[in-house]
Amino acid sequence: MQNNFARISKATIISIIVALLFAVIVVVAIKLIIGKQISFAVSILNTISIEEKQANEQKLEINTEKKRLDTYPAYGTKYGNIKIDSIGVDLPVYLGDTDEILNKGVGHYSGSYFPGEGGSIVYAAHNFARFFRKLPQVKVGNKIKITTNYGEFNYKVYDTQVIHMSESDKLPIQDEKEILMLYTCYPVTGIGHKKHRFVVYAELMEEE
Questions:
Q1: Which fold does the domain 43-207 belong to in CATH?
Q2: Cα separations in angstroms, 42 against 31, 55, 60, 157
């Protein structure tokens, strides 16, 4: 009888261990699947890449007559701040647009110019409530201020558009005029893959 009890106890313990292991595997699998879906739903896909992201101390050389910074921030570091008073935005700006960077603030596409260099500046941020959720509320004429460790730059909004994620020509990199372009996934509410982007276009007003 004792042997039967031992066998039953052993079988029960093994069953419990197997059940626990199965439960752990299921929980981990669900977490991974949901995590990937959420990340996919809220991340801004970088579909406007023109060249590989360049690392530290990058120098842009589209037009050597344009103003250049003495030094450039390292990739992934904060180098400024952006304020849009009309929608209550006050966020740090980082060089780069990886998902890790965009979880901290506004990302600067490293293939574009820096404020004050006289070319296209492309910023992106998640459509989270604390980031660019209110970007579609920006109106023509609103002001945008970017503060860096080398100066303050003020821009005036002249256009807003909803574009398809494949329309890279709507975010052109040029060096003829200083244009700031901000974008986020659109619509800004709900989850799931977003095929459109809301873009704000602003031109430099003054440089201090």
A1: Sortase; Chain: A; (2.40.260)
A2: 16, 25, 30, 25
